[in-house]
Amino acid sequence: MNLLITGGAGFIGSHVVRLFVEAYPNYHVFNLDALTYAGNLQNLSDVEGKPNYTFLKGDITEAAFLEQIFRAHKFEAVIHLAAESHVDRSIAGPMAFVQTNVLGTVNLLEACRRAWAGDYAGKLFYHVSTDEVYGSLGEEGLFTEETPYDPRSPYSASKAASDHFVRAWHHTYGLPVKLSNCSNNYGPNHFPEKLIPLAIHNIKNGKPVPVYGKGENVRDWLYVLDHARAIDSIFHRGRVGETYNVGGVNEWRNLDLVELLCDVIDEKLGREPGSSRKLITFVKDRAGHDARYAIDSSKLMNELGWKPSVTFEEGLRKTVDWYLASEQWLEEVTSGHYRDYYRKQYEER
Ligand code: NAD
Ligand code: DAU
């Protein structure tokens, strides 16, 4: 099978590419990525020499380019992860999110429709999406696949739009599609603009750890490899036309999570217990900050037998170990543009 994975140089995409390249030597995996600030081929340095892997640099907003690679490589399936993914960036500049997440997704749907020309046997378009499309929960309840869409940030609105387009191409043109909506991922290769890697980086370097508002917002954290395993299960065994929610059953208040990270890093670096907690700094809240996300994954668990393979304790320790050992990766991704972003986001507000 010629399999196109988009956004494979990013955080989740790189774990998905590695899993498919290693587990399915009879597939040829093409990784299409524009290498934006979030894309980094170092994430895949162990995979780049494999005979069943090819990197294609390109932008999903360019329809003509997509047509050309579909003609050249005869893709039979697509796993679509390429996106602008950071909520704060979507607040500062929403148009890139409309371009990539909405227009880019429609371009890909059109490329599949044209290339496959109604002969859909053995074909699949798998769209990777987020729980943020469902909006924000109060203290009780979970997002199910039936929860009405209620996106509230430019990022989540763009992902919700892309989900609607994917379903529309299924209902109108019969394109075989699957979707999944996942909660917050964490793990190695996570870009340090997001809470967990940013907190680890700053705690390690003795810098202030910014917590928005009072730190009371709740997220449901899932280890990235468990998301990749869920994508594998849904891709191979999920039902066409269906949506599967993916989550960690692992809710944390931001402040509790950051305190835990301080304590884990104090222990690992031999610092006085509790000493890094003084780095926690409350800063101006995110505009329109969603209060709580929590996912009901029972459909995925009951139908496909998926469940998380690591506990949060294990996953977090592995993650901290990876960041402490990946000095060079962090150096590279936090130079240049990252410093400008950080200054605007945290120091000039
Ligand atoms: P990321 O920002 O780390 O990576 C995105 C990748 O897409 C990068 O490699 C980037 O270069 C590439 N890309 C961006 N614009 C592109 C374009 N126009 N053309 C081609 N490539 C482009 O994102 P991530 O956190 O790995 O998220 C991957 C997907 O999973 C996204 O669709 C996101 O919405 C979804 N998701 C993420 C999470 C999470 O917690 N990170 C949770 C649920 C769903
Ligand atoms: O729920 C899935 C989503 O999770 C994905 O679709 C997004 O791509 C991904 O970025 C993530 O979105 P969040 O906004 O939840 O993640 P982030 O790491 O940016 O923030 C997590 C929480 O921490 C959120 O409540 C905001 C807060 N926060 C974040 C940062 C960056 C802080 O308190 N301080 C910070 O510096």
TrEMBL record:
<dbReference type="GO" id="GO:0009225">
    <property type="term" value="P:nucleotide-sugar metabolic process"/>
</dbReference>
<dbReference type="InterPro" id="IPR005888">
    <property type="entry name" value="dTDP_Gluc_deHydtase"/>
</dbReference>
<feature type="domain" description="NAD(P)-binding">
    <location>
        <begin position="4"/>
        <end position="319"/>
    </location>
</feature>
<dbReference type="InterPro" id="IPR036291">
    <property type="entry name" value="NAD(P)-bd_dom_sf"/>
</dbReference>
<keyword id="KW-0520">NAD</keyword>
<dbReference type="GO" id="GO:0008460">
    <property type="term" value="F:dTDP-glucose 4,6-dehydratase activity"/>
</dbReference>
<dbReference type="InterPro" id="IPR016040">
    <property type="entry name" value="NAD(P)-bd_dom"/>
</dbReference>
<keyword id="KW-0456">Lyase</keyword>
<comment type="similarity">
    <text>Belongs to the NAD(P)-dependent epimerase/dehydratase family. dTDP-glucose dehydratase subfamily.</text>
</comment>
<protein>
    <recommendedName>
        <fullName>dTDP-glucose 4,6-dehydratase</fullName>
        <ecNumber>4.2.1.46</ecNumber>
    </recommendedName>
</protein>
<dbReference type="Pfam" id="PF16363">
    <property type="entry name" value="GDP_Man_Dehyd"/>
</dbReference>
